[in-house]
Amino acid sequence: MLPSARMSFRRRWVVYGLVALILGGNLASFIFNEQLWPYSPYPMFARARELTFETLALVGEPVDGGEIWFESQGYLSHQVSPMVINNGFGSNRARPGMNGLDEHLRETYEFYERRRRQGLSSAPPLRRLHLYRFNWTLRPDLANLRTPRRTLIASYYPSDDRPAQ
Amino acid sequence: MRFAAAWDRFWFAPRRAEDLAICRILFAAGMLLVGLSRPIHEWGEVPAFLHQPADFLRLLGIPILGTGVLQGMEFVWLGAMVTLAVGWYSRTSAAIVCLGSLYLFGIDAPEFLGRAVTAGVFVPAILAVSYCGDVLSVDAWRRRRRGQVINRPTEEYGWPARLVCAFLSYVFFAAGVSKIRETGFPEWMLSDETTRDLLVGHYWYASRNRALWPVGAQLLQIHAGAGVALGVITQFAELLYPLALFVRAARWTVVPVMLAILIGITVTVGPFFHLTMLAHVFWVPWSSVGRRRRR
């Protein structure tokens, strides 16, 4: 390959256009402190928070007893991570009796059951599905990992198709 | 006049075509592994109330398509990563990867889980405009067979890596300044936030994944100030990262420290910034590495 002298003027401006699109767009996102995919001001972990953690979590009661926490087992597909569940159900806005929660729980159960029946997940059949708010005080010895403070937000009883609280 | 010349030199420093080609191969191959690990088509069957697509898709009324269509798009997207890696219709492949990422990552809750994959849009966009397939590619082999000779200025192979590195510099610098904007300086680094981050990934999900190994919690048990120490290192590395664009010493110190921090975050907190880490291949002058090994 033979290198020639310089890039053309036009070609240089194409490159500057791309620089403006990528860096300029990101800079605007940063100045306005707004995320507009794929631009971002990258604010992750930027707030100073207390040593506590709160989230909404789906908890199922299998027919055979015990309980399962919906984590990343893929019961609701691998894309529905616990963070998506937390946001989808309303995050810190969610309250017992809030409009739409029972309907969302029913939809979630039906989706869970459809995937289970199709063999797309190894999930057990459920007796009940609950939405809890979990709250932990974070400890370096991690002694309370499986014992968060819980508040029941909503429940769904699939056997009689009756949402209950 | 002097500034204009320096500006020009900054963006258009000459590089070897092989350097860009190796970056293309490594980035596309690594991105393929990331793409294969994420069945984004599953969004097509998820209940609508759980959908969290990018705002621009919502604003433009672009829907989340059905599973079958998404699977087809995913197949083309992943296929384009393969053809980009082998350098077959390199620029077209890069454009397809870029557009595919924009939509597919865009339906995958990008506004709060997508900061690890922004490089999956921007790096292919840069490759699509560059001549990344001029060597070490099927395109080059086909051209040779046809007897065509490429005659391009070496500046053409320098600017893409420079732009990727400038983008990475923005990412980390913005993250560092966001902490100042949200919390203040030095309040953020002296706060409990890093301690919290070292613990939270063991309790629940601070991102798509949980912490892999409780090394952060163990460090905190040995010394309660470990969180603040790691916070100080992290924020300084973020703020100093852009220096690597101009100072060789920073390239050899700040960039490896930042990479180590990203690996540490994956292990102790959970978020896996795979494509951001992968984009670091553009920092490496591959042909010089090869020459040094041969000596």
Structure summarized in a few sentences:
The complex is a heterodimer of chains A (165) and B (295). By secondary structure, chain A is α+β, with helices and mostly antiparallel strands.
Question: What does this entry look like structurally?
Answer:
The complex is a heterodimer of chains A (165) and B (295). With 165 residues, chain A is an alpha+beta fold. In chain A, 28% of the residues lie in helices and 22% in strands. Chain A has helices at 9-31, 82-88, 101-117; strands at residues 52-62, 68-69, 126-137, 149-157, 162-164. A 5-stranded antiparallel β-sheet of chain A has the order 2-1-3-4-5, with helices on one face. The longest helix of chain A is centred in the first third of the chain and has 23 residues, at 9-31. The termini of chain A are far apart. The model of chain B has no long low-confidence stretch (mean pLDDT 94). Chain B has 2 domains: 1-157, no CATH class; 162-285, no CATH class. With 295 residues, chain B is mainly alpha-helical. The interface between A and B is large, with 69 and 87 residues.
Biggest interface between protein chains, with counts per chain? Answer: A-B, 69 and 87 residues
General shape of chain B:
globular
Largest sheet of chain A: 5 strands, antiparallel
Order of helices and strands of chain A: HEEHHEEE
Oligomer: heterodimer
Descriptors:
heterodimer, A: alpha+beta, 3 helices, 5 strands, B: 295 residues, mainly alpha, 16 helices
What's the structural blueprint in terms of helices and strands?
The complex is a heterodimer of chains A (165) and B (295).
Chain A: H1 9-31, E1 52-62, E2 68-69, H2 82-88, H3 101-117, E3 126-137, E4 149-157, E5 162-164
Antiparallel strand pairs in A: 1-2, 1-3, 3-4, 4-5
Chain B: H1 2-11, H2 17-36, H3 55-59, H4 67-86, H5 90-104, H6 110-113, H7 119-129, H8 138-146, H9 159-183, H10 187-190, H11 193-203, H12 215-222, H13 226-240, H14 248-268, H15 274-278, H16 286-294
